[in-house]
Design a protein that fits this description.
It is found in: Cytoplasm. GO terms for molecular function: cysteine-tRNA ligase activity. It holds the Pfam family CysS_C. Its main location: cytoplasm. The chain has 3 domains: 269 residues, 3-Layer(aba) Sandwich (Rossmann fold), CATH 3.40.50; 136 residues, Four Helix Bundle (Hemerythrin (Met), subunit A); 52 residues, no CATH class. The protein has 17 helices and 15 strands. Strand 11 and strand 12 form a beta hairpin. It is globular, with a radius of gyration of 26 Å. The two termini are 43 Å apart. 42% of the residues are buried. The structure holds adenosine-5'-triphosphate and zinc ion (ZN). The site of adenosine-5'-triphosphate (ATP) has 17 residues, from helix 1 and strand 9. The site of zinc ion (ZN) has 3 residues, from loops.
């Protein structure tokens, strides 16, 4: 399925570029992962839905995928530059727990959210497991590229060619001036210099600290990603992803470290950036502004579920927008995505009902069917492939999938084969879930499904007996308990909470 070459937007060159694997037949991807000091908000999860979609497209194109989403469990300060406290230690103090327990708890919660969004399993290296390698990296570049201050070992950005070119690329679209936003630490040679090792201040102890040639302390956040990327994927690897905020500080700093590392290792390309393609997803925003954890209660996937929304409705909401466009979150938008998902799942159910043998088919045979698309469906398959190959145009790909679901003239098992193959790329589990899976009881619902169904049955009987007073009374009493009866709903949903 590689007729159309895959083109991806490279933030480094600001151009669409054809994906050319560095290692024949393979794709190696590193996605900046979460700082596990708190729950992830759904904006963060947009970054991983995007990364997962990229991974799935690469696999669909036939590449063997190695995909890393790291876990930052130390070293990320409350500001992305060099100011503030370590997010982990701060939360540990607030919750009166150890930083290690905090990290474990929120990593597990993060992984649960990934699974609920049907993000395929990835490698999740923890920064604290790579500290030795980070120190070795620091030692290797220290002489030529770093200097020591009381607070730590700093990277001198003037020692590498063209520092910040990634961020400057961003200035086209934004007001830019990323360097100007970096706060000054006394003694820094350049405003944009950043700590690769942060010393524990004299007289203090940190929960997470290690011995190093520059004293006891902890690694800098930017160094962590450089080191884990290099250790797990080798330089250069194919694609590095992150949210658009990383284009301004975190990724330029990673690139600077990578250049320094490659130079001191005798690699001749002084502009070696570590990864060939750098991709950035745009933000999920709220009407009130940027989504943030600092602002008290924030939007978590669990909150969506508590309100009765299936996590995959959120995945669909993400796929309905191009990853490089800003996406505004609203409950109405999520409701619309859930309705669309229901329609797709129900269309899938109808095709499955036409082909009873499908469920009995072994997986290999289903796969075989998914590779044998009948001629009449070729234009839709082509459209699907062309849109995803065009910098992951998922909104367009979704419409092709919907048309396949609706194309009545084709043999159901052939249709199912193609749906299965397309859905493997989009990850909506259309043929694995059914409409009842999508109806999630909100946390505050007063009735169980069985109770609702029993009431509705009673109402049906009353209506059959033309006892409209009883039927209306049942409807009103359900409404008082938060259940809306939906007579004649086109989707066949008889009630909603
Ligand atoms: N609103 C958002 N929409 C899309 N991606 C986001 C959003 N906010 C953060 N990201 C991305 O989520 C990933 C994880 O980010 P990170 O752990 O730094 O959390 P953060 O939300 O920026 O943290 P904090 O809220 O503490 O500032 C990064 O790739 C980041 O760019
Ligand atoms: Zn990172």
């Amino acid at each position: 399925m590689t007729e159309t070459p895959l083109k991806l937007f490279n933030s480094l060159t600001r151009q669409l570029e054809e994906f050319q694997p560095i290692h024949e037949g393979e794709a190696r991807v590193y996605s900046c992962g979460p700082t596990v000091y708190n729950y992830q908000h759904i904006g963060n999860m947009r970054a991983y839905v995007f990364a997962d979609t990229l991974g799935r497209v690469l696999q669909w194109k036939g590449y063997k995928l190695t995909h890393v989403i790291n876990i930052t469990d130390v070293g990320h300060l409350t500001s992305d530059a060099d100011e503030g406290e370590d997010k982990m230690e701060k939360m540990a103090a607030r919750e009166n727990k150890s930083a290690w327990d905090i990290a474990k708890f929120y990593q597990e919660d993060f992984e649960r959210d990934l699974a609920r969004l049907n993000v395929q399993p990835k490698q999740h290296p923890r920064a604290t497991e790579y500290v030795e390698a980070m120190i070795a990296w620091g030692e290797r570049i220290a002489d030529k590229h770093c200097y020591e201050l009381d607070s730590g070992l700093y990277f001198d950005v003037s020692t590498v060619a063209d520092y910040g070119r990634l961020a400057r690329a961003a200035t086209d679209a934004n007001d830019g001036d990323a360097e100007g936003r970096i706060d000054t630490v006394e003694g820094k040679r350049n405003q944009a210099d950043f700590a690769i090792w942060r010393k524990t201040p004299a007289g203090e102890t940190r929960q997470m600290e290690w011995d190093s040639p520059w004293g006891k302390g902890a690694p800098g956040w930017h160094l962590e990603c450089s080191v884990m990327g290099e250790k797990l994927l080798g330089f250069p690897f194919d694609i590095h992803t992150g949210g658009i905020d990383h284009r301004e500080i975190h990724h330029p700093n990673e690139i600077a470290q990578n250049q320094a590392y490659c130079c001191t290792n005798g690699l001749d390309d002084a502009r070696n950036s570590g990864a060939r393609i750098w991709m950035h997803n745009n933000f999920l925003v709220e009407r009130s502004g940027k989504m943030s954890k600092s602002a008290g209660e924030f939007l978590r996937l669990q909150l969506l579920v508590d309100k009765g929304y299936h996590p995959l409705a959120y995945r669909l909401m993400c796929l309905q927008a191009h990853y490089r466009s800003e996406l505004e979150f609203s409950w109405e938008g999520l409701q619309a995505a859930l309705t669309r998902l229901k329609r797709m799942v129900m269309a899938g159910e109808r095709v499955l009902a036409e082909d009873e043998s499908w469920h009995a088919l072994p997986m290999e045979e289903r796969r075989a069917k998914s590779l044998n698309t009948p001629k009449v469906l070729h234009p839709l398959l082509k459209r699907f492939e062309a849109s995803l190959s065009d910098d992951l145009n998922t909104p367009e790909a979704l419409t092709a999938l919907e048309e396949v679901l609706a194309s009545k003239k084709v043999d159901p098992s052939e249709r199912l084969g193609l749906v299965l193959s397309m859905d493997r790329v989009l990850g909506l589990n259309l043929l694995q879930i059914d409409r009842t899976d999508l109806r999630i009881r909100p946390k505050d619902a007063q009735l169980t499904e069985a109770e609702i169904e029993a009431e509705l049955q009673r109402r049906k009987e009353a209506r059959a007996a033309k006892d409209f007073a009883t039927s209306d009374a049942i409807r009103d009493s359900l409404a008082a308990k938060g259940v809306e009866v939906m007579d004649g709903d086109p989707l066949g949903w008889e009630w909603r909470l």
